Amino acid sequence: MAVRVAYIAVGNIAGYHLASVKKMPDAEIVGLCDIDKARLEARQKEFGGEAFTNPDQMLKAVKADACYICLPPYAHGPAEMACVKHKVPFFVEKPISVNVKTAKKIAAAVKRTKLMAAVGYMNRYRASVARAKQLLAKDPPAIIYGGWIGGYPGTHPWLFDKKKSGGQLLEQSTHTVDLLRYLCGEAEAVACYAASNKFVSEAKTFKADCASTVAVRMKSGAVANIMSAWVCRAGGGVFLSLFSPNYRIDFSGWNHDVKIYHADGLHVEDIKGETNIFEIEDRAWINAVKAGKLNGVMSDYEDGLKSLILCDAANVSMSTRRPVKVKF
Ligand SMILES: NC(=O)c1ccc[n+]([C@@H]2O[C@H](COP(=O)([O-])OP(=O)(O)OC[C@H]3O[C@@H](n4cnc5c(N)ncnc54)[C@H](O)[C@@H]3O)[C@@H](O)[C@H]2O)c1
Questions:
Q1: What is the tally of helices (H) and strands (E) in the chain?
Q2: Pocket of ligand 1 contains residue 9 by CB under 6 Å
């Protein structure tokens, strides 16, 4: 029998998860929920499924086996609790919330009910990341730097309102923060500074930090730096470089292509990032739902919560201008 899949929020990223599930012979799109009726109608025309504006009503009506939650960071809570109430395993896009308290409440409900819940940190599914993890397990990095540097993110008004998105570090560079955790273990403390917003010229409504840098002390003894910027129109890109005694591992670009330099100086590994990473991530999620086990899912809710907690600690440091201990 096909896996019955529902969606809460059907905006930009949901389009990718809808398209890959639509192609699966063993899955069926049964429900779509959004507060934007025009968008809902357009998605329904393209992907089918019954349309709703309330998650609870949808989950009551469609008997879903799994649900995607693709809400903006500020809107989490009721959707996840509706999945808990109706015992529907859910996949939630990163970041899991703008609010640590809300996310902890959801995490506790997920744990209490033993509900399957996955988080959309899709870079964990990449071959380049798997190879780096394999090498670094035996030869941990001493120093790491990474980040997301680009121009003004004009498409989503909620994105450059920090109260709604959590700011660039929590919303976007969270991908790099998550990889830092995945490849190097947990953080102990952070010290974060934001640049002056005198560099912003694009919009009067810009209510986030235009650039920031966070120094991270890792439990492993390593040190890292994660940079974020939304005011660099000439670009900068997505990058993550990890340096261990025997390897230099350079990820570059949204696809996370990697070049791995060995200390012997004799060879360089070159792995291209997958261009269909959401399909790979979605296949793993639907397989997990069919199996009733999170095997193959690279980030569960509790893990996603740790990436949120680390970004939130950096935000606290950014506003207090003091180092902050990371408490999971
Ligand atoms: N994994 C990735 O690389 C990736 C890429 C893009 C976005 N995302 C994440 O996905 C999330 C959504 O981003 P997006 O780009 O799709 O945003 P979007 O603004 O395009 O879509 C969000 C949708 O949520 C709907 N919505 C808002 N409040 C709602 C509510 N209470 N109930 C139902 N629907 C509601 C909006 O009407 C909109 O259709 C964000 O957390 C973002 O970080 C992840």
A1: 11, 15
A2: yes
241 and 319 part of one domain = yes
* Structure confidence by residue, pLDDT tens digits, 125-151: 999 999 999 999 999 999 999 999 999
| DSSP state for residue 231 in the 8-state scheme | -
Domain that holds residue 225: 123-274+308-325
Task: Report whether residue 34 contacts ligand 1, using a CB cutoff of 6 Å.
Answer: yes
pLDDT in tens, 263-314: 998 889 999 999 999 999 999 999 999 999 999 999 999 999 999 999 999 9
Give the closest residue to 211 by CA, choosing from 129, 141, 150, 120: 150
Sheet holding 27-33, edge to edge: 50-52, 27-33, 3-8, 66-69, 90-92, 117-119
Q: Which of 90, 115, 140 is the last residue of a domain?
A: 115
CA 38 to chain centre: 27
Distance from C-alpha of 90 to C-alpha of 7, rounded to nearest angstrom: 9
- Specify the pTM: 0.98
Q: Say if 53 falls within a structural domain.
A: yes
DSSP helix/strand/coil, 213: strand
Smallest CA-to-CA distance from 313 within 177, 171, 190, 130 is with 190
Task: Provide the greatest CA pair distance for the chain.
Answer: 61
Residue 70 Cβ < 6 Å to ligand 1: yes
Report the CATH number that the domain containing residue 31 is assigned in CATH.
3.40.50.720
The pLDDT, as a whole number, for residue 186 is 98
> In terms of domains, do 11 and 73 share one?
yes
Structure tokens at 130: 């798997």
Q: How far is the CA of 43 from the centre of ligand 1 (A)?
A: 14
